[in-house]
Amino acid sequence: MKIHNIPYGRHNITEEDIQAVIKALKSDNLTQGPYITEFENNFAAYIGSKYAVAVSNGTAALHLSALALNVKPGDKVIATPITFVASSNCVRFCGGEIVFADIDPETYLLDINSVRDLLEKSPKGTYKGIIPVDMGGRAVNLEEFRKLADEYSLWIIEDACHAPGGYFVDSKGEKQFCGNGNFADFSVFSFHPVKHIACGEGGMITTNDEKLYKELLRLRSHGITKGNDPYLNSIKFATGGYEDESEYPVWYMEMQQLGYNYRLTDIQSALGVSQLKRANIGLNRRREIAFIYYEAFKDRDYIINQSGVVEGHAYHLYIIEVNDRLNLHKYLRKHQIYAQIHYIPTHLMPYYRSFGYKEGDLPYAEEYYRHCISLPMFPTLKDEEQQYVIKTIEGFYKNEKNSHHTCKRGK
Ligand SMILES: *Cc1c(COP(=O)(O)O)cnc(C)c1O
After folding, report:
1. Pairing mode, if any, of strands 203-207 and 51-55?
2. For residues 348-379, b (16+ Cβ closer than 10 Å) or e, as one string?
3. Are residues 241 and 349 in the same domain?
4. How many whole angstroms from 6 Cα to the centroid of ligand 1?
5. What's the predicted TM-score (pTM) here?
């Protein structure tokens, strides 16, 4: 088999997906039709949450979550630096302030002890919320974060963009699926093509809180309320002469707050419904691929750390930490393996540096960034392709003699 051009992630569109989109295109609604509700209901059922709200992308999902939690200029929110920039930008959209805590170098997740340190150093009430990320697909232990958050009256937005279907095991031995609404106020997902479920663009917010759910529905669509909503103010002039609430004219609506147009189209939702049907197949395949990487690298002395085999991991990414990462990355590209680096720490982005962040502020995040590389990980990756990736990495460290100064961390 001739192997060429292996990306780190790739979507998978089947004939069934295409037929689903065609059906939506031929229907009466290109947007705000039945597929949106179907996608929301099926997604909530898949994740195990009470409510799900489909939005135009994962960033919009984060923004609406921050708005619904009433983030205001000056509000301080704790975030992780090892994630996509959108995880913290949502607070900035509302004028809030991001305070970064460090990561746990073993799991790459926001370190709860680092968060606790920040909280203990300031008077209660200083911080409003925390945004933990299921980085790479590894589920954050939200039971622990909830306990800490409750001590300080903080909200939690879980950025679960990497982890639909992922879970952690709680203190009672129960599986707690990412986004199931048991611990976080909101959990957000993305349906960008590199994520587990592809809509082109798309996002979802899950919650178990009915009031917050209704708030999201209004904010998603211009802050407009209609129908038999108890929130209606029933302004006499605007009802156009109708007096009786049960008889409001069909056009009657109120814009009660400043909202956005963050709706997902029916075309995208139809694709989402179809993709969601195969989500578990894709997830199982990701776990198989992870197991093979883990077995291949576990005894290698050039490996500092790796994603590993972890119960409930959703494996959006499979990350290895190595020395001479730059040259390995170049070597892999030369061999048409397009590994990626996730992520440049957010606090070192020029935008966040402008708030005073600098190198040395978050040592574990920065050390991780020096060594991390994400290997090809997607359900349609072929066994031969994965073996080629593993052999190419082996070849690099054998030939280039780059393994002599590796220092192992942890296990
Ligand atoms: C992809 C992603 C987002 C943003 O999602 P978009 O749909 O691209 O807006 C946010 N957070 C994380 C961790 C992501 O990976």
Report:
1. antiparallel
2. bbeebeeeebeeebbebbbbbbebbbbbbbbb
3. no
4. 22
5. 0.95
Looking only at the bridges linking them, the beta strands covering 175-177 and 167-169 are antiparallel
What is residue 225's predicted lDDT score, i.e. its pLDDT?
84
**What is the rounded CA–CA span in Å between residue 173 and residue 99?**
32
Q: Is 258 exposed, middle or buried (0-12, 13-18, 19+ CB in 10 A)?
A: exposed
Question: How far is Cα of residue 234 from the mean position of the Cα atoms in its chain?
Answer: 39
- The alpha carbon of 232 and the centre of ligand 1 are apart by a number of angstroms equal to 34
**Residue whose CA lies nearest to ligand 1 atom number 5:** 58
Residue written as token pair 């680096």: 341
φ, ψ for residue 176 (rounded to 5)?
Answer: -115, 105
Contacts of 235 (CB under 8 A, 6+ apart): 254
In this structure, the residue with its CA closest to atom 3 of ligand 1 is 58
Atom of ligand 1 nearest to the CA of 59: 9
The predicted structure's pLDDT at residue 251: 79
**Mean pLDDT of the 191-208 span:** 98
Smallest CA-to-CA distance from 316 within 159, 184, 157, 166 is with 166
> Residue 58 C-alpha to ligand 1 middle, in angstroms?
5
- Cα(190) to centroid of ligand 1, in Å? 5
Q: Which of 108, 192, 341 to mutate to test the pocket of ligand 1 (most atoms within 8 A of CB)?
A: 192
**Per-residue pLDDT for 354 more than 90?**
yes
pLDDT digits (tens, 9 = 90+) for 17-56: 999 999 999 999 999 999 999 999 999 999 999 999 999 9
Cα(373) to ligand 1 centroid in Å equals: 19
**Cβ neighbours of 1 (radius 10 Å):** 7
Please tell me the predicted confidence (pLDDT) of residue 410.
45
Look up the domain containing 303 and give its range: 279-401
Find the distance separating the first CA and the last CA of the chain, reported in whole Å.
Answer: 36
Looking at the structure, tell me whether residues 180 and 290 fall in a common domain.
Answer: no
Cα gap 373→347, rounded to integer Å: 19
Q: Are 46 and 279 in contact (CB under 8 A)?
A: yes
- Domain assignment present for residue 1? The answer is no
- pLDDT for res 191: 98
Which residue among 276, 293, 326 closes a domain?
276
Q: 213's torsion region: left (phi>0), alpha (psi -120 to 50) or beta?
A: alpha
Is there a single domain that holds both residue 42 and residue 72?
A: yes
Are 193 and 291 in a shared domain?
A: no
Number of structural domains found in the chain: 2
